[in-house]
Amino acid sequence: MLKRRHSDSEVVAITVDGVAVEARAGESVAAAVLVSSSEATRTTPVSESPRAPYCMMGVCFECLMEIDGVANRQACMVQVAPGMRIQRQLGARDLRGAE
Amino acid sequence: MPISTAHKNYDVAVIGGGMIGPALAIGLAERGMKVCILDEGDDVLRVARGNFGLVWFQGKGFGMPRYVEWSRRSAKLYPSFAAELKENTGVDIGHANPGGLELLLGDEELAHRRHFIGQIYQQGGGNEYEVEFLDRKQTESMLPGIRLGDEVVGASYSPIDGHVNPLFLLRAMHTRFQQLGGTYLPHHRVSGVVKNGQAYDLQTAAGTVSAPKVVIAAGHGLRELGPPLGLNIPIRPQRGHILVTERTQQILPMPMSAFRQTREGSIMLGVSAEEAGYNDMVDTATIAKIAQRAGRIIPALRNLNIVRTWAALRVLTPDKCPVYQESQSHPGIYAVASHSGVTLAAVNAKVASGWIADDPAPEEFEAFSSERFNAQKTA
Ligand SMILES: Cc1cc2nc3c(=O)[nH]c(=O)nc-3n(C[C@H](O)[C@H](O)[C@H](O)COP(=O)(O)OP(=O)(O)OC[C@H]3O[C@@H](n4cnc5c(N)ncnc54)[C@H](O)[C@@H]3O)c2cc1C
Ligand code: FES
What we know:
heterodimer, A: mainly beta, Ubiquitin-like (UB roll), seven-stranded mixed sheet, 1 helix, 8% helix, B: alpha/beta, FAD/NAD(P)-binding domain, D-Amino Acid Oxidase, Chain A, domain 2, 3 domains, four-stranded mixed sheet, 9 helices, 19 strands, binds flavin-adenine dinucleotide, binds FE2/S2 (inorganic) cluster
C-alpha cells in the first residue's frame, strides 16, 4: 500500500465503498484512495480485469470511479471534498433506471 | 518503394480495399480466379473505416423497388456470410439481426415517416414489405428497462434490420480474401488504366499490374478513375458524423437507426448528413445536435461521456441507389458505387461477384445501370 509522505493540510472525511477514509485537503480522489487501500479501483467493462490509477494526470483513464453517484469519473482529476462518496467502478456502468 | 509488382498478371484486378472491393474479391477468389486488390495508404478518404455498422433494410430503395429487393437479399444472406467468415478466419464480425427501430419524435416526424415508408410499400406493387409502425406503448414493450423521452410517439420497425462491427467485418474480409489465395497490394494507388492487348494495365507508382478484368470499387476514387474509361458516374460526398459513448451494461436490445449499442457496450450515435464537399472535419455544432436528439429520445443517454467522434464522407449517387455498371467503351471494366456497402457486403460477395465472373447478371441489376442518370439529363 502507498503511504502519504506528509501533509499539513486539514483532514477531509470521505467514504470509499461506504468505509470512512481520512483524506487531506487538496489531494485528488485517486491519491486518497491509493493511500487507503491497495485494492483495484475498477474492473474493465468487457474482460473485468482489475485496474488502478496509473498516470495520475488525466491521460490514461485507468482511475475511473463512481464519485457522488456519477459513474466513470477520472478520480485523479477530481479533488476530494468533505462528505464525498466514492465507489469502485466495477465493470461497465449500468444505465438502467437512470433518468 | 521498389517496383515489386511489375507486370504481375491476374484474372481480375480490384481497385479499392474498402467495403465493396474485398466483398466482391472474396466471391471471385471463391470461384478459383486469380485476384488482386490494389489499395491506397491510410491517409485518404476511406469510408470503410468510418461508418456506423448497420445492416439496414427499412427505408432503403425509395424510388427503386429493385434496391429494396437487393437490400433484403443481402440482409438474409448475412447470417451465413458472418458464420462463414468466423469459421474460416476466426474473426467474429458481431453480426446480429434482432430487428431495428427508427424512433420518431412528435406527430410530424411520424406522419413524414409513414408517408415515406408507405411510398416504398406502394412502389413494390403490393408485395410484402417487412416494415410496420409501432405506437409508443408497443415501442416501449420492445425496449424493457428504457424510459423513452416524452416526445417519442412511436417507431417504424423491421424484423430484417441488424448490425455488425464494421471494422471486424473489414478485417475478416481481408483475411478471408488472402486465405483464398488473393493478393492484397496496399500503397498501390492506381493512377490510370490502359488497354494492352487482351488485358488492361493498371499503373501505380509501385509498378504495373495487368488483368483482363478490372473492378473499380474505389469509393470516392471513382470520380477520377471512371471518366477516361467510359464510366462517367455522378457520385458526390455527403458528410456524416458519429459519436461514441463510454461502455455501459447492455441496455439497447436492438439497433435504432440513429443509435446502436456495440457488443462491447459502447453506444454509437449518428448520423448526420451535410453537403460539405470533401471536408471530413468534425463540426461541433453538428455533434451537439446529434447528442441533443439522442437525449430527447432516451434521456438516460445524457448521463454518458462521449469518448470519440468523427466524420466520414458517404459515396452517394444522385438517387442514393447503387450503381453496378460495365463500361461499354472498355468491356471488362466494371464500376461499383454505392452507399450502404456494409449492408450489401453479403450480397456483393455471394451474388454480385458472379456478374463479374460472367454469370448472367442478377435480375436486380436491370435497375442498377448508370444509364439512368444519362437518361435523366437528356430528358
Ligand atoms: C458516416 C457514415 C455512416 C455509414 N453507415 C453505414 C451503415 O450503417 N451501414 C452501411 O451499410 N453503410 C454505411 N455507410 C456507407 C459505407 O461505409 C460505404 O457504402 C462503403 O464503405 C463504401 O465502400 P467503398 O468500397 O465504395 O468505399 P471505401 O470503403 O471508401 O473504400 C474505397 C477504397 O478504395 C481505395 N481507393 C480509392 N481510389 C483508389 C485508387 N485510385 N487506387 C487504389 N485504391 C483506391 C481507397 O483507399 C479505399 O480503401 C456509412 C457511411 C458514412 C460516411
Ligand atoms: S490515473 Fe490516468 S487518467 Fe487518472
